Amino acid sequence: MKDVTKQFGQKTAVRDVTMKIAKGSAVALLGPNGAGKTTSIAMMLGLIRPTRGVVTLFGGDPLASEQHAHIGVMLQGVSVPDRLTVVETIQLFRGFYKKPLAIDRLLTAAGLEEDARVMANRLSGGKMRRLQFALALAGNPEVLFLDEPTVGMDVTARRHFWDELRRFIASGKTLLLTTHDLQEADLVADRVIVMNKGRIIADAAPESIKMQFAGRQISFVAGVHLDLQKLTKLPDVIEIKTAGRQVTIRTNNSDGLLRTLIMEQWEISDIQVTGGGLEEAFMRLTTETEGTFV
């Protein structure tokens, strides 16, 4: 995508977005509802055209059938053909490709071995998503586009899904997904793009984003004579929160700050150092920042 804008009437869903997804990368596209994630994926797939800018897929037109032969797609709100069993549905989709994955492999990837003869339209919501995952993998794609793939799945199914996705990534293939499961996105993605109000506001490795916006936290119990005002002026202190005598400091240099607290003999006890997660960084990015981080 290069300088892409998409408008629906007076509403601008995507505004001046440029991004390039490299082969073999695992990219999590994150953002609050209405940020422009689904619209961006729809343009990459050729489902809708940009109002302005250029979108290419494998260097060509996203609408071209030869480009679609190398991708797998799992979108939201997609139905399957009526009056077919799970295995018949998968076989139907395998027939669209020259070198599809084996049917047994697809049933295993989706965790639907025991449901192979069940009518597809009678599956629960979670199992329907698993079937859609099998259909996305049917053509042995080079790139997977997944839009909120685990919606409706139970804990066991989600764990199985993420294990399969890690196998896909480990094979050197490319992934682009949107998800609200930030913990799992943190584990599988090597790049995180955060959108808000139609714009990209962050684009970096997960660790870089966490360090910049979540940082690390030092928490401790403060002594009765500890001067909080003086504490806020120490180097590397970004933010201080208190709950009674419990103090939590957000910092980008936990080692340096902890060394200062100990060397200067601050009146503190029960010290803990923890790393901020992607969820905390995401919340700060989408609620507190106006600029961009790349």
Care to describe what's here?
- InterPro entries: AAA+_ATPase, ABC_transporter-like_ATP-bd, ABC_transporter_ATP-binding, P-loop_NTPase.
- Keywords: ATP-binding, Nucleotide-binding, Transport.
- GO terms for molecular function: ATP binding; ATP hydrolysis activity.
- Residues 1-222 form the ABC transporter domain.
- Pfam families: ABC_tran (PF00005).
- With 294 residues, this protein is α/β, with parallel strands linked by helices.
- The chain folds into two domains: 4-205, P-loop containing nucleotide triphosphate hydrolases (Rossmann fold); 216-275, 2-Layer Sandwich (Alpha-Beta Plaits).
- The chain is 34% helix and 26% strand.
- It has a six-stranded mixed β-sheet, sandwiched between helices.
- A hairpin with a 2-residue loop joins strand 8 and strand 9 (199-204).
- Helix 4 packs antiparallel against helix 5 and helix 8 (206-214) crosses helix 11 (278-288).
- The longest helix has 16 residues, at 155-170.
- It is elongated and about 75 Å long.
- The protein starts with a strand and ends in a 6-residue tail after the last helix.
- The mean pLDDT is 92.
